[in-house]
Design goal:
globular, mainly alpha, single chain, 8 helices
C-alpha cells in the first residue's frame, strides 16, 4: 500500500509539473517576443498554402496579446493536468495527436488569415476529456468530465461562425479542436483508467469461468 501511495504521489507531481511547463511555454515565447520586439505573428498558421503548414507547430505558442494569452492559460493548466493524471505515459501520445490534428484541420478549413493561439488545442483537450468521461465508466474520469463541462460549457458557442463575423477570433480553430478531441476520445477509449470491478461482477466472472471449464470437460468426455 505504501508503494502505491508513493507511486500516486509521484504521478500527481509529474502531472502538475508537465501542466505548468506546457502552459509556461507560450508565456516564454510571448515575453521574449515583446522584449526583443520580434514580429512573431508572421509565424502563425496560414490556411491552404504550403508555406502555412509550419504554423501547425507554431500556432499554439503565439498569441495576439496579453489578454488572449491569459484567457488560455487556466484552461491549459487544468486540461493538461487531467490528461497526464489519467493517461500518464500515454498522455504524450494523445497530446501530440490532438495537437497535430487540430492544427491540420484549422489549416484545411481556416479563413484567409493568420491564425494564432492555443485555443484550438484547449478545445481539443476539453472535448477529449468530456467525451472520454461520457463513454467510459471510470468514476474519477467522469467527475473530471463534469468539471470540464461546468467550467467550459460555454465553449459550445464558439463553434458558430456567425457569432464571430467581423472579429479576429478563429472559430475554425475552435471547431477543429472539437473534432480532434471527439475523434481521439473514441480512438483512445481503451486507454486510461479502468472502470472499477465490484464484488458482484467478480462473482459473475468466476461463475462464467467455471461454466466454461465444465463445458470443456463435458466436451472432452464425449471424445
Amino acid at each position: 500500500m505504501y508503494d502505491n501511495l508513493t507511486d500516486e504521489k509521484k504521478e500527481l507531481r509529474l502531472a502538475v509539473t508537465y501542466s505548468i511547463l506546457l502552459a509556461a511555454l507560450p508565456w516564454i515565447v510571448h515575453i521574449v517576443g515583446n522584449v526583443c520586439s520580434l514580429r512573431l505573428k508572421q509565424y502563425g498558421l496560414r490556411p491552404l498554402v504550403p508555406e502555412g503548414l509550419p504554423g501547425i507547430l507554431t500556432m499554439p505558442f503565439l498569441h495576439a496579446g496579453w489578454g488572449h494569452l491569459i484567457s488560455n492559460t487556466p484552461a491549459m493548466l487544468l486540461l493538461v493536468f487531467g490528461l497526464f493524471l489519467f493517461y500518464r505515459q500515454g498522455a504524450w501520445r494523445i497530446l501530440l495527436c490532438l495537437y497535430f490534428l487540430s492544427g491540420f484541420l484549422t489549416w484545411l478549413m481556416g479563413r484567409d488569415a493568420i491564425h494564432m493561439g492555443a485555443s484550438g488545442l484547449v478545445y481539443a483537450l476539453a472535448a477529449f476529456h468530456f467525451v472520454s468521461g461520457v463513454i467510459k465508466k471510470a468514476p474519477n474520469q467522469r467527475a473530471f468530465a463534469l468539471l470540464v463541462a461546468f467550467l467550459y460549457g460555454g465553449f459550445v458557442w464558439a463553434f458558430f461562425p456567425t457569432l464571430y463575423q467581423g472579429t479576429s477570433i478563429s472559430w475554425e480553430g475552435h471547431l477543429s479542436g472539437l473534432l480532434a478531441g471527439i475523434t481521439f476520445a473514441f480512438y483512445f477509449r481503451d486507454e486510461g483508467p479502468e472502470p472499477p470491478v465490484y464484488p458482484l461482477q467478480e462473482e459473475e466472472n468466476e461463475e462464467d469461468m467455471n461454466v466454461d471449464v465444465e463445458d470443456e470437460m463435458h466436451f472432452d468426455d464425449k471424445k
